[in-house]
Specification:
With about 280 residues, the protein is mainly alpha-helical. It contains 17 helices and no strands. About 75% of the residues lie in helices and about 0% in strands.
């Protein structure tokens, strides 16, 4: 697999450095996080993304200032939902937290958000950019269906899960950019499905440390790999072949997205910058 283009990384880093001072003023990271004002709510969301989703934090920094606050709110919402499974004491508590966000989303669209920084900022983003409720609901429903500690049944099920989670977030970012057309959404879907697959592969050591395995069962069976092999951290040829097969799926999504990049207008390209880091992560996997 070819290494990522140095020029691609360099140009992104140059763009990032030119905006760095302005971004630091926006973040004001040294202030105590609080929900007392709009600025503090925005800072809370930005810092949440910086702490738990650093790649997409960097991608958000490169967005136009008119989109950045809303993008951080969308990403922060995604973090709130994605962490429920890991931070909840038990499955019942996890379902309770999912229920809170279902109700919160209804209240947000009624312009009566709960008094939490992420909900308040998401409400502002929805009003400003007319964000579709269906994409936010897809994230919640898919995470809810995945609360049980079981592997994906197949690579296709993993792909479908990514479509409803990572892709839905990409669609919302396109709406923030005012560029959510069918053609652009097709490219965003490919990037999102790549991201979902790469995220699963990168999280294997973390989950194995907690005696959990979410890799697709059809891949495990095809390559004669047991869940205990993953938990014990084995590095045999069967495991490497299985990981390579799953990574190849992510690569194919990314290549197809790159082939369609001419259909993406300039106003939408900055929302897909996460693809730069995805290529790097696939390479080192």
């Amino acid at each position: 697999m070819a290494a990522p283009s140095v020029c691609t990384f360099s140009s992104s880093l140059v763009n990032l450095s030119t905006k760095y001072k302005d971004v630091c003023r926006f973040l004001n990271c040294k202030r105590r996080l609080s929900s007392e004002s709009h600025n503090n709510n925005a800072d809370y969301c930005a810092n949440l993304v910086r702490r738990y989703d650093y790649d997409n934090f960097l991608a958000c920094l490169l967005l136009p200032s008119s989109q950045r606050t809303a993008a951080f709110a969308v990403r922060a919402f995604n973090i709130e939902i994605s962490q429920i499974k890991d931070v909840a004491r038990n499955e019942l508590a996890a379902f309770g937290r999912i229920g809170f966000w279902k109700n919160a989303l209804d209240k947000i669209y009624q312009n009566n958000p709960p008094q939490s920084p992420v909900a308040l900022e998401l409400c502002k983003a929805i009003k400003k950019h007319k964000l579709s409720q269906c994409w936010l609901e897809n994230v919640i429903k898919s995470r809810e269906a995945n609360l049980a500690d079981r592997p994906f049944k197949s690579i296709q099920e993993l792909d479908d899960y990514s479509e409803n989670t990572a892709c839905s977030i990409q669609y919302l970012l396109l709406e923030v950019a005012g560029a959510c057309t069918d053609k652009v959404r097709m490219v965003a879907s490919l990037v999102g499905r790549c991201q979902g697959t790469v995220t699963l592969l990168r999280s294997v050591p973390y989950h194995a440390h907690k005696n959990k395995v979410y890799l697709p069962l059809d891949g495990l069976m095809k390559h004669d790999v047991s869940q205990q092999d993953i938990i014990r951290g084995k590095q045999n040829s069967n495991i490497k072949d299985m990981v390579k097969e799953i990574a190849t799926l992510a690569t194919s999504h990314l290549k197809e997205a790159r082939n369609l990049k001419k259909s993406v207008p300039g106003s939408a390209r900055s929302t897909l910058l996460t693809a730069v880091r995805l290529k790097y992560h696939i390479f080192i996997i």
